[in-house]
């Protein structure tokens, strides 16, 4: 008999699961893996959520593999979970009801590059670094950079973004069309290579950010950009978070097309100084990047310098030399490791979480968050994609210290409530997964959840696609 | 008994319709209108489709009005059709099954402007000109310009765009969140004011472009931009459409952030010369607009001039003076009227249609379309939002001439097939409405249509919202 774990997650019947795994073994031979170690690797999650491994993993090599896995699982009502690189942060690849994980890493071909149209067609397992490597000779790049070398299928499914989003948008703005394997194994085509279309419901955007709960993405058509002639990096320290945010607001309002604008709060700068042997003033820091022609980036830098001065910014440094750019951005590149180094130890976990608010509220949101950390005696440097109002906390907690863990949970909860009370969202780019389901209702209301449940049921009536994610149990 | 018009359009039972209209009359008094003239005004359509008026029109003044209309209609299974300004082009406001039209023109308040966040909250009946008038003093504007002074609710529902889309995106990229009245009269909130979010399914984009078939938009949060410091206009004639398209491709590839880039084919230039007393060379013409600082627009213009010269462009003229800009763009502004003037007469109709292809195929698509017009002995100047690969034909036909009408239909049909065969779409910005339903299956396949039908049924199980639009009968 199937075991209901919660009202929206049901373990398959053991006999049905066995039938499915037998059928998959017959079809895939040693590309079906059931070893404990491999199953656990595929349920990696960097949250406080427990690891919930699938019952088996299939290494897919082509679209037909995905179709067959889905058909076999569907016939037996066994869950199917898509896996790219496992770098999602909210338990998206966990298998709370078990089932079959489809590992898409071998589906890593760039199928077509259309340089004149600035688009390309790829398989879902292509990672962003591999893609940019492939494109470089043609003077093209894909701008979305979520930090990890994630797969494009995964980035699409979590609606990822990162440091470049302020200029180039998120996955939402950069996916043109998808092919998606649906429950009966047939393939839905969501769009064409036309840059814009008014042809019917926007199926593309329904699958972007759906975290694999509505079908499995088997092919993507995405937008590309020309590599800019000149890239300038800049840095400027501010006395206060408010000053840094005000400079960002003015830069965007006056139309400076910043490509990146990252805030490191004082705690993060301190951590970077220590880890990367820098001597930055230990106050809020803005790191910027400008893309364009030589004349353009020079003007953008100059204009931003004037704005920064108005907003209490200190020395403004900018450069177009690659090695100096790298140095200037060193602190940002090492941010994660600098946080880890703050508190070494096997039992110390770094939990990354993100929220996003209207930019006018960002200074308040960050400052109140800093106050809360002090009050709760917790350590969490803050890094923000400040042009979008999006910031990350990297909370350090000793998982063996119950009291600290409780305070950590309280902090995370209050962070989300704070962002939502400022007309923001519980996640700007990490997704809902398992970790943030409890916040959706407060953010959008019960009617939006009804709609999401109706959509899930409409496209996945058997609830086999990544069950237990995004939409909370009714 | 209810009358089934086609498998997805059913006229309400006469008794149920009467009950609904009586209830609406009791609730709305003289804001419920059933006169023939007003009903016909609300089913205006500039296609060859017949006008299909609703049974009644309610003039809504606030969200509660929409909710009550929907509740009354839902209880009686009577269709509800939203109406903004009636400028849609594919029969979107027609009422093939009768029902009640909700006229939203009086819901025209700008509710909040958040200058620092570059967003605002508005009612659906606000028109784009009224909005820009409202915003001007704050140095802000809303960039989407579909030509007509359409309502923002309508523009959202057709996923409209226009001349500025190449730089600023379409409605798809510029709607942050919506409030939508669903079938039971309750309101779905689709998002927050955060600029980006990964919080669950993208409900916002499901309603953008849904043509009122999934619910009625009662409030919109949209993105704004700062009015650029300097605007430059430019014009350049080309020997061939291919040359003009190649210049466009290079401009976009090299990252010139053109704000507008419009192609007028030779027939359109000829029409403009005649109507606006201009003396432009009667060859393909590109009209451009650059937005930015003085330095930026000067550099952009210069860079484009070099590209144009490489691609066989003739004299390149550019200016930042408002009166000269207007003169340079005169031909584009008068395009519609110049077409009308080509062939006066009561029985002559102008049917506007649009397709969109990858930009690398645009020259082929336009040239083959011109050849087809010659072959069919038809007159249709062409204007293109060429940076997006989107172009319009304004076909002149004598509605009393059966043979000409048949050739016109053949032309339109072949135009769509041509665009689709080039990996394009049957509509870049006009929408599907009634006119283009027959092309959806060829474009996206039966699986996409299944998905669209499932979504429609999930969110509108009674099929009361604008029935008979977008999704063709199964």
Automatic annotation (TrEMBL), chains A, B:
Pfam families: FAD-oxidase_C, FAD_binding_4. GO terms for molecular function: D-lactate dehydrogenase (cytochrome) activity; D-lactate dehydrogenase (NAD+) activity; FAD binding. InterPro entries: FAD-bd_oxidored_4_C, FAD-bd_PCMH, FAD-bd_PCMH-like_sf, FAD-bd_PCMH_sub2, FAD-linked_Oxase-like_C, Oxid_FAD_bind_N, Vanillyl_alc_oxidase_C-sub2. Keywords: FAD, Flavoprotein, Oxidoreductase, Transit peptide. It comes from the Bacteria. Gene3D superfamilies: 3.30.465.10, 3.30.70.2740, Vanillyl-alcohol Oxidase, Chain A, domain 4 (1.10.45.10). Residues 50-227 form the FAD-binding PCMH-type domain. Its cofactor is FAD. One of its GO terms (biological process) is lactate catabolic process. Its EC number is 1.1.2.4. Belongs to the FAD-binding oxidoreductase/transferase type 4 family. This is D-lactate dehydrogenase (cytochrome). The lineage of its organism: Bacteria, Pseudomonadati, Pseudomonadota, Alphaproteobacteria, Hyphomicrobiales.
């Amino acid at each position: 008999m199937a075991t209901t774990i919660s009202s929206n997650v049901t373990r398959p019947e053991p006999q049905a699961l066995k039938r499915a795994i037998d059928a998959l073994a017959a079809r895939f031979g040693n590309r079906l893996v059931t070893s404990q170690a491999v199953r656990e690797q595929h349920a990696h999650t960097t949250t406080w959520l427990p690891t919930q491994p699938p019952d088996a993993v299939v290494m897919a090599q082509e679209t037909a593999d995905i179709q067959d896995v889905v058909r076999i699982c569907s016939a037996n009502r066994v869950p199917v979970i898509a896996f790219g690189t496992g770098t999602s942060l909210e338990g998206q690849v966990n298998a709370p009801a078990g089932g079959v994980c489809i590992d898409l890493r071998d589906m890593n071909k760039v199928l077509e590059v259309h340089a004149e149209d600035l688009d390309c067609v790829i398989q879902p397992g292509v990672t962003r670094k591999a893609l940019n490597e492939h494109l470089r000779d043609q003077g093209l790049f894909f701008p979305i950079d979520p930090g990890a070398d994630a797969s494009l299928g995964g980035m699409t499914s979590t609606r990822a973004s990162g440091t470049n989003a302020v200029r180039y948008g998120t996955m939402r703005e950069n996916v043109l069309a998808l092919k998606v394997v649906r429950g009966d194994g047939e393939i839905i085509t969501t769009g064409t290579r036309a840059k814009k279309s008014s042809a019917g419901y926007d199926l593309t955007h329904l699958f972007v950010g759906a975290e694999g709960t509505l079908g499995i993405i088997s092919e993507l058509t995405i937008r590309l950009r020309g590599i800019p002639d000149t890239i300038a990096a800049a840095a400027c320290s501010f006395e206060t978070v408010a000053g840094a945010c005000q400079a960002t607001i003015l830069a965007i309002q006056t139309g400076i097309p910043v490509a990146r604008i990252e805030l490191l709060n004082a705690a993060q700068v301190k951590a970077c100084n220590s880890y990367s042997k820098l001597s930055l003033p230990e106050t809020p820091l803005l790191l910027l990047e400008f893309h364009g022609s030589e004349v353009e980036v020079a003007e953008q830098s100059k204009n931003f310098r004037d704005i920064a001065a108005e907003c209490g910014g200190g020395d403004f440094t900018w450069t177009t030399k690659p090695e100096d750019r790298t140095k200037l951005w060193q602190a940002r590149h090492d941010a994660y490791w600098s946080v880890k180094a703050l508190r070494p130890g096997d039992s110390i976990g770094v939990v990354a979480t993100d929220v996003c608010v209207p930019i006018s509220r960002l200074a308040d949101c960050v400052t109140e968050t800093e106050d809360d950390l002090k009050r709760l005696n917790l350590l969490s440097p803050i890094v923000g994609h400040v042009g979008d109002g999006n910031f990350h906390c990297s909370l350090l907690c000793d998982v063996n210290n119950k009291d600290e863990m409780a305070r950590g949970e309280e902090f995370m909860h209050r962070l989300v409530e704070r962002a939502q009370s400022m007309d923001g969202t519980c996640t700007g780019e990490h997704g809902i997964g398992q970790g943030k389901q409890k916040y959706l209702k407060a953010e959008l209301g019960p009617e939006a959840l009804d709609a999401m449940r109706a959509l899930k049921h409409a496209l996945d009536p058997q609830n086999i696609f990544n069950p237990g994610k995004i939409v909370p149990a009714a």
